[in-house]
Amino acid sequence: MRAKDENKEAAIREQAIAMIVAEGFHGLSMQKLAKAAELSPSTIYIYYDSREDLLNKLFFYVEEVFNRETLKGFDARMHFEEGLWIQWKNRYRYSKEYPLYFLFAEQFRNSPLIRHKDIRENRFRSAMQEFVYHAVQRGEVADLTPEVFWAMAYGPFYTLLKFHMDQSSMSGKPFALTDHKLKQAFRLVLKALEP
Amino acid sequence: MRAKDENKEAAIREQAIAMIVAEGFHGLSMQKLAKAAELSPSTIYIYYDSREDLLNKLFFYVEEVFNRETLKGFDARMHFEEGLWIQWKNRYRYSKEYPLYFLFAEQFRNSPLIRHKDIRENRFRSAMQEFVYHAVQRGEVADLTPEVFWAMAYGPFYTLLKFHMDQSSMSGKPFALTDHKLKQAFRLVLKALEP
DNA sequence: AAGATAAACGAATATTCGTTCTTTTAAAAA
DNA sequence: TTTTTAAAAGAACGAATATTCGTTTATCTT
Fold first, then answer.
1. Are A94 and A184 in a shared domain?
2. Are residues B90 and B146 in the same domain?
3. Do residues B77 and B161 both lie within one domain?
4. From the Cβ of B28, is strand C under 7 Å away?
5. What is the per-residue pLDDT across B146-182, written as a single tens digit (0 to 9) for each?
6. Is B139 left (phi over 0), alpha (psi -120 to 50) or beta?
7. Looking at chain B, which residue has its C-alpha nearest residue A119?
8. Is the CB of B23 under 7 A from strand C?
9. CB-proximal positions of chain C, under 7 Å
10. How far is A114 from chain B (nearest CA, A)?
11. What digits encode the pLDDT tens for the residues B30-42?
12. Is the C or the N end of chain B the one with fewer CB within 10 Å?
């Protein structure tokens, strides 16, 4: 029997993500995708049951890469400052290495597609919860509702990151996120979160 | 001549926003919209040149309401703590009074549609810039890059608000944003931003 | 080398899309 | 009341949509 060409699955995935980032969900048609990935429309259906199945699998794949990259060098028993900083750096690095994945996930997260599934639970890892729990025990960080903590610890970071990715300009020139600005914001967040 | 029924324009607008929030941009078809607004597809084209024109006008309308609501009771010469708190409360109130508008705008903002236009500039009002400038002069707040300031001042707020709107659950039960949690987060933000 | 099997293809399917055409209707102007 | 004019309707348009069908092709097994 003829062997599956695994390159094709990756080609479909990468082209689909690129198309969605460039033109949105309605910009992804199976025929245009087939043309971009240089294969027949029907071939897509060998790897994915349907358009909806494709979208779901794209999201799960991207989320998997995100989780892997985000946990690199991270340990739940780290001191708070070190652990949170690693999280920031990992997420920042992820957005630079996989910018299309990042933009795709943001688009997905803000679309109603996600509401029809129950994907959101996994977003916040139990490793992070454990990390925060121990840091609170050690008196390294204020004891807050999980959502308030998350909002303080990551809200500023993601706001900066999205400015950067969208090349938003608050005044004149487009914003570029530097290591210095990232560290500066991090210090402010630490200040807010000290017990 | 026959008079325009202005109710129709509003009906089209509200139904379109509801459809987009419920099913995404590709969930908005002119024929389904016509059915939902109880009129003929061709009637839509009396009020809007095309589907794209409709989407643009929806966004501008929603942004206009947002700006109006957000500036209520706000003055650029207010003291920093009072002014920023009014901004938080106004935006919170807006999200409660116009939840569909809020969700629509979030979806629009994270889609590539917005990249094809140049809408984003207006997002951050000059009134806000003036407000921050004076507060810095008076030594009420740290002097930061606009983007870093914005990320600190609004990042946590919007993260909380989106948890609330999406009914995300970080742990067990769905999150509900209370006045108390809002005030708590606000105090933490003030702490981070003090000079 | 021959046969088997699934990958891959490209054309064809029915449906839905945005938009326009033609006709009817209602209200303002005469 | 008659005329005029644009609002509103609904059927119809071609183009594009997701998916499937029948056939061909490549590679593994025998």
1. yes
2. yes
3. yes
4. yes
5. 999 999 999 999 999 999 998 887 777 888 999 999 9
6. left
7. B168
8. no
9. 4-12, 16-22, 25-29
10. 10
11. 999 999 999 999 9
12. N
Residues B31, B177: Cα–Cα separation, whole Å: 37
A118 CB-contact burial (10 Å; exposed 0-12 / middle 13-18 / buried 19+): exposed
Instruction: Report the residue of chain B nearest A191, measured CA to CA.
Output: B192
Q: Which of residues 12-51 of B touch strand D (CB under 7 A)?
A: 38-43, 46
Q: Does residue B41 form part of some domain?
A: yes
Is residue B116 included in any domain, yes or no?
A: yes
In a domain, A107, yes or no: yes
B97 shares a domain with B31: no
* CB–CB contact B175 A144 (8 Å): no
Å from A2 (CA) to D25 (C1')? 9
Co-location of A83 and A152 in the same domain: yes
B95: how many CB neighbours lie within 10 A of its CB? 22
Chain B contact present for A39, CB below 8 A: no
Separation of alpha carbons B120 and B117, rounded Å: 8
User: CA of A191 and C1' of D6: distance in angstroms?
Assistant: 64
Q: How many domains does chain A have?
A: 2
Same domain for A41 and A84, yes or no, is: no
Domain residue limits at B71: 63-193
Q: Does residue A34 belong to any structural domain of this protein?
A: yes
Token duo for residue B188: 């933490």
Q: Are residues A155 and A75 in the same domain?
A: yes
ipTM of the predicted structure? 0.91
Answer whether A111 touches B (CB < 8 Å). yes
